[in-house]
Design a protein that fits this description.
1 helix; mainly beta; 28 strands
């Protein structure tokens, strides 16, 4: 009798463990880094890149259902943490870059790498041109490498900064490439010239510039380790400085209509700013850890915020609420 009871107990534990192991991954239950995110398929899905360790564990490339929060796919093939993820206009191709110097072009339908490019040094960001025909890579040695997506084929490489390039971004019309660096500057480039020519040097930050983003009207924003966000004209003239974050500002993104600027910071918050009034309108969080990135959905109704240990958090901007909050741990009886 005792033996049968033990067998039943063991069977129950095994079944419980199996059920837990088979529980589908959701946006609510994440505990890994998300350092970059992009909405695809008209905003119905979200692609994220990240991982758990810079060097010692494979990176994450995942796709999520925005409506349900369910994980739709997890791609294998990025050996180390994914620093950036970009999507082709049709959503059929993802481009990731990592700490290991690899750029991978992913076939979304087949859920596997289509091509892999190996470079020396980590690659902090890759960005696609608006038409998807070209992409740029931000290199650790201060250079920027340009590629034709078809192939892919490397077309140009040029020294952009005196220190590591942290971000690259094509203007909305695709004519200008913006770069920023730990050398405390951002620059604008005529990247289509035979040898890319510097059009403007954006100076004003007192520490490393981590992020750059374009608005639909041609203006742009930069942000970095000095905790400041700066807004510039299309010619590179400083127009405003936005302050409020208490730690490094890791990323910035304009809403599709250009009216709102979102930012993420190591102070564990994401913030929204009125571009015209040049003031903060909302603080989202605090999150449980450092915030790495922000990305708007195509209609501007959602904001994805990548964090250090809680994956990507998805915010409904209409009511400033988190769509899939992490489940709260139940307190023990003696803690109540």
């Amino acid at each position: 009798m005792l033996r049968n009871w033990k067998l039943a107990a063991v069977s129950a534990v095994l079944l419980l463990n199996a059920a837990v192991a088979e529980e589908p991954a959701t946006l609510a239950k994440q505990n890994r880094w998300v350092t970059s995110a992009v909405f695809i398929d008209g905003g119905s899905k979200l692609a994220t890149g990240g991982g758990e360790s810079l060097l010692y564990r494979a990176g994450d490339v995942k796709i999520w259902n925005v409506r349900s929060g369910a994980q739709l796919a997890a791609f294998e093939g990025q050996p180390t943490i994914v620093w950036s993820i970009a999507a082709s206009p049709d959503g059929k191709t993802l481009i990731t870059s990592g700490y290991d110097g690899k750029i991978i072009l992913w076939n979304v339908a087949e859920k596997k790498p289509a091509q892999t490019i190996e470079k020396k040094g980590w690659i902090r960001r890759c960005a696609l041109s608006p038409d998807g025909k070209n992409f740029a890579a931000a290199m650790e040695d201060g250079s920027v490498v340009l590629f034709e997506t078809e192939g892919p084929k490397e077309t140009k490489s040029f020294k952009a900064h005196e220190a590591a390039v942290y971000d690259v971004a094509f203007s909305i019309d695709g004519a200008i490439l913006a770069t920023c660096s730990t050398d405390k500057t951002a620059k604008l480039w005529d990247w289509k010239a035979e040898m890319p020519a510097e059009k403007a040097k954006l100076e004003g930050h007192s520490d490393a510039v981590w992020a750059v983003a374009w608005s639909k009207d041609g203006s742009l924003a930069t942000a970095g380790a000095d905790r400041k966000i700066k807004v510039w004209s299309s010619e590179g003239k400083e127009e405003a400085t936005l302050e409020g974050h208490k730690d490094w500002v890791s990323d910035v993104a304009f809403s599709p209509d250009g009216a709102t600027l979102a930012s993420s910071s190591h102070d564990r918050t994401a913030r929204l700013w009125d571009v015209k009034e040049k003031k903060e309108t909302a603080s989202l969080g605090p999150h449980t850890s450092t915030c790495w990135c922000v990305s708007f959905s195509q209609d501007g109704s959602l904001l994805a915020v990548g964090t250090h240990n809680a994956g990507v958090r998805l915010w409904n901007l209409a009511n400033k609420t988190e769509m899939f909050p992490a489940p709260k741990e139940e307190k023990k009886a003696d803690e109540k």
